[in-house]
Amino acid sequence: MNVSPSLYLSLSAIMFCIGAVGLLIRRNPLVMFMCVELMLNAVNLTFVTFSRMLNDIGGQVVVFFVLVVAAAEVTVGLGIIVSILRRHPGTTADDLTLLKG
Amino acid sequence: MADKIVFAIAALACLSGAVGVIAAKNPVHSALSLVGTLFGVAILFVNLGAHFLAAVQVVVYAGAIVVLFLFVIMLLGVDKAEDLQTESLTGQRPAAAVIGVMAVGLLLLLAVRGVQVTTGLHSSTAALSGDSSNIEQLGKALFTDYVFAFELTSALLVIAVVGAVVLARRAPREVHPE
Fold first, then answer.
1. Secondary structure class of B127 (helix, strand, coil)
2. Is A67 helix (H, G, I), strand (E, B) or coil?
3. What mean pLDDT is predicted for residues A25-32?
4. Is A16 part of a structural domain of the chain?
5. Which residues of B touch A75 (CB under 8 A)?
6. Domains in chain A: how many in total?
7. For residue A24, how many C-alpha atoms fall within 13 Å in the half-sphere facing its CB?
8. Is A14 a member of any domain?
9. Which is it for the CA torsion B96, B37, A16, B60, positive or negative?
10. Nearest residue, CB atoms, A74 vs list B65, B80, B97
11. Looking at the domain assignment, is residue A101 inside a domain?
12. Would A70 be classed as within a structural domain?
């Protein structure tokens, strides 16, 4: 591996933080969901980098499972968003205050 | 040398896509930027020798998940531009920026230092380097050491499908027997 692992790790750290900031500042639930996907991808990149660095196939197996879980999560999450938005069109994350005390 | 150039191009695609996701006003543009990031990550996977994961990344993420996002956007007609100027919570954006910068700093420190602090001990599972190809190694690990987790994911997928169907269908109108 000619490119230093630190570069890969730094790239995924930056991607993770961009996703986290996006989750904090956006209000459209769909875009917030995309930011979660961004963070998941950053972590996947970290796993594969460490898998290469430590010469261990386990990291890649974990990424495989993360992909499966992300697919399941998107299915259920988008189902929830569809059922909310169908009832109240144009809802943002700020309007979902049912649990507010 | 070649993989440095590949890394630079893919990293640029990843970062510009990531910024595009959070900065685009229109959710459709966000989804398309997400595709750029996902392709960049797939290229980096190839660069790291994880060929199977690179293929799965393109098929599952770019092929299925982003299409699902676009489907929902089109279906619900939520492709209105979001007003990014007004903030409903005073000081939310500056606070988010400060938190983001601090988190980037910490994680970068960890990323640069982390290369030295990992133990480098050899794994209990299969080693990555060997004669067999990446797919063969991954398959062997998946169906020997991780076979229980692999079986559990099938249950997870069934639960997710049933849950999505239950959530998305319209509630049947109640029939009152006269």
1. strand
2. helix
3. 87
4. no
5. 68, 160-161, 163-164
6. 1
7. 17
8. no
9. positive
10. B65
11. no
12. yes
* Inter-residue contact A58 to B125 (CB < 8 Å): yes
Segment B102-158, tens digit of pLDDT: 888 888 887 777 666 666 555 555 556 666 778 888 888 889 989 999 999 999 999
User: How many Cβ contacts (< 8 angstroms) between chains A and B?
Assistant: 250
Rounded CA separation B50/A45 (Å): 10
| Model confidence, pTM | 0.87
What ipTM is given for this predicted complex? 0.90
User: Residue A77's domain spans which residues?
Assistant: 28-89
* Contact by Cβ (8 Å): B33, A37: no
Between the alpha carbon of residue B48 and those of residues A21, A52, B111, B113, B168, the distances in Å are 27, 7, 17, 20, 39
Question: Of the ranges A80-84, B4-8, B65-69, B174-178, which one carries the lowest mean pLDDT score?
Answer: B174-178
Task: Locate the DSSP E strands across chain B.
Answer: none
